Amino acid sequence: MPDTNVAIRTDYDAVVVGAGFSGLYMLHKLRELGLSAKVIEMADGVGGTWFWNRYPGARCDSESYYYCFTFSKEILLEWEWTSRYPEQPEILRYLNYIADKLDLRRDIQFNTRVMGARYDDSSGKWIIETESGEHLTATYFITAVGCLSSAQIPNFKGRETFRGKSYHTAQWPHEGVDFTGKRVAIIGTGSTGIQAIPVIARQAAHLTVFQRTPNYTVPARDMPMPPEFKQGVKARYDEIVQKTRESVFGMPFEFPTQSALEVAPEERDKVYEDLWNRGGFCFMLSSFHDLIIDPVANDTAAEYVRRKIREIVTDPETARKLSPYNHPIGTKRPPIDTDYYETFNRENVALIDIRSEPIEEITPDGIRTSKREYGVDAIVYATGFDAMTGSLFRLNIRGRDGILLQEKWADGPHTYLGIATVDFPNLFMITGPGSPSVLSNMPVSIEQHVEWIAACLGYMQSRGLNQIEPLREAEVAWDAHVAETAAATLFPRADSWYMGANIPGKPRVFFPYAGGVGAYRQHCAEIAANSYEGFVLSQHRERVAPR
After folding, report:
1. 491-507 pLDDT, tens digit each
2. Backbone phi, then psi, for 218, in 5-degree steps?
3. Neighbours of 464 (CB within 10 A)
């Protein structure tokens, strides 16, 4: 409980929550505007998701040369990435380098958890309360809490009775975990599970994988970054940056113009084979233009991956369990892997399909399903996140007249551009629901949001304004556009965290914006150029109570 005897009030122009990619860049831009700012961070260091996610095999699924800040040519040329897909320690080193390079730590308050944030109608200020009972006031409240930072563990019966060690991939011990000689269970085969399973299998005496939904995954083909490739990238960074910003998914790939159905099967398979061998997201993004909008085209890619599974996995029954049929490929966040399917050929790895053999309870000695009990020494929960909204709801944000954000969003998020929401003046959400966010290479979307917010605040400063809020009709229209854009794709056909399907009781709506990074950027630019169309900008004057 907060210490109610502590009530320190400190005024800032802006308070930012989170010191990952979003919070660091937002602080830098606020300083450029000459605004006073404080970043609140519950960890004892910078990094956001890369501070917490230290599970075995944790690495980026976008290539390092474009999974980075691009606002500074000096930083682009100075930093040296070591591999194609950097692991968590390297990305954390990068973010610490950014914090030091820009001297950001002096305005970051670490080891501090936000317990609530309330908009005060009379003063036009946000009042932010921390776990210690400290109160900070600010004109602008900016959330930089990430889309995937609220860990989700299913409420299995008996979970608290387990006598062994339990871990969630997003809350991994910083000292690491030694599984040597241990019997380990891992629950979940999403992106984190797919990265962790091969690494844990090489160490554990035995690994039992509990899978609810098989996932399509493509090899990463990670490798050290060749010096000549680094030199080539740095020589053409201007071109790369422009491509990422104008692209559909924030990646500098050439978007294909050909349909998967326009070519002969053998030619189509050659395209898939070449991209499978190249590795990474290009399998989906550089093959054919209609994979995410046409179910027949999509199934050509899906069947190619299922065929690969059958070729790689030697046991036919295990290959069958690993082969997805209940959702189109790419409609869940498409993982990339290193030796994932190959891992199931190991003698010390077993796969349990919990759709046909459901988990009934966690016991003191392991996991009991409908068929038997599996004795284990450790359980790893790779069960994902309450995505997009969970990290916002944890802040207990109250807007005008005390309305709680989760009450307003009871039937799903309502935003304008994924940046702001009606009844919450001066609240900005970096990569909030209704923006491309998780459908993109995250740093390019983060930069776009931060720069748009900073430009908006600069515009207001220059005109003596200090309050901004979307018009309700603009929010309603944007919600409809987000839904309409998603409906034109195959995304809603999957029970994914994009749809909130991994959280019991969560509204089933498509949370991100599927219209593309480049189109979204252009739309936001047009709104700004038209005097922030769809927003009401004003000068709030503090109301003084009558004597």
Report:
1. 999 988 788 878 788 88
2. -120, 145
3. 7
